[in-house]
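Notes taken during the Thursday session

The instructor put the following on the board and asked us to keep it in front of us for the whole hour. The protein is A-factor biosynthesis hotdog domain-containing protein. We were told not to look anything up and to reason only from what is written here. First, the residues (328 in total):
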Amino acid sequence: MVLEGHGDVLERGTAIRHLVHQSPDWDRYLLDTPSTGEERFTLAGRMPDHHPLFNDGPGTFHDLQVVAELVSELGEFVGQRYFGIATARTGLCYRFDLAVTDLDRWRVSAAGNRLTTRLRVLPVHEFGGAPRSLAFHYELEMDDAPCCTGSADIVFLTPVLSRSYSRLSRGRALALLQQQDAEDPPRLSTEPVAPELVGRGKPANVLLAEPTVLAGPRLVAQVLVPEAHPAFPEQQHTPGLLLLEAVRQAALLAAGRLRGLNPGYSTLAGVRMHHRGYAEPDLPLRCAVQAGALERDTTGRPVVPLTLTLTQHGRTVAQAGATVVQDL
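Then, after some discussion, the predicted structure tokens were revealed:
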């Protein structure tokens, strides 16, 4: 029973989530007019248990990408239903930030794993009666205990702008096709790494090739973009969730190769990702990782901060900062 606000049931595959809208202005809601201010929601569900990507691995920690997928899917629904954004406009999550506040809650267990997400959504840059983008701020609870906080920004492009940006991105990528980036090695391996080195169990879920280790310490690896994968939506450009998974795998690989952490007992404790442009699926994509010094968190766990950059022929597609923590 929904006791507060208006409820929606969101279903995707085998995942069913319940969204409760907690409007601060019920007069506007009763008049069925689009919101022009902050709106609040609570999303209730469970962690996935049959996901083709998120449930593949050593089974030590839940995947934090669950949060990114949740926010991305929720963005268009909330924008269209509550903020009057036209259905023809495409929602793109261009900035994503997440920080784990209780690592123990992210451990995989046989019981529980109820996930509750509390969101504040604010419209940004209103034009023509609807916002151009939405800013999401969220707090997550696992089995009623706080475990994570973060934010995300989603921009909504008109069909004309979407086509224009796509052509511009494609043109820039092709213009750089013949140029070599002097800072990166001219050739990289295309042989996939072992799944356990990137926290996966199945070879089909590996997105990184054997890296080249450079001074710094840093490493560079080719990103292996599959033609099709059940976890990634079919899009004209490389999906954002795939790029985030490549960042996750590269962070675990670098923390292991450069700082000695065990990927089977490691996970992301935080990630900040900013998309700078489209990634073209038919052009080579590489990920460079710079590892910081090995640190310890307040409980004594080893922690490695990393800086990651995804590029295509020297053109930056996305930049990320990540922290990998190991807990035996």
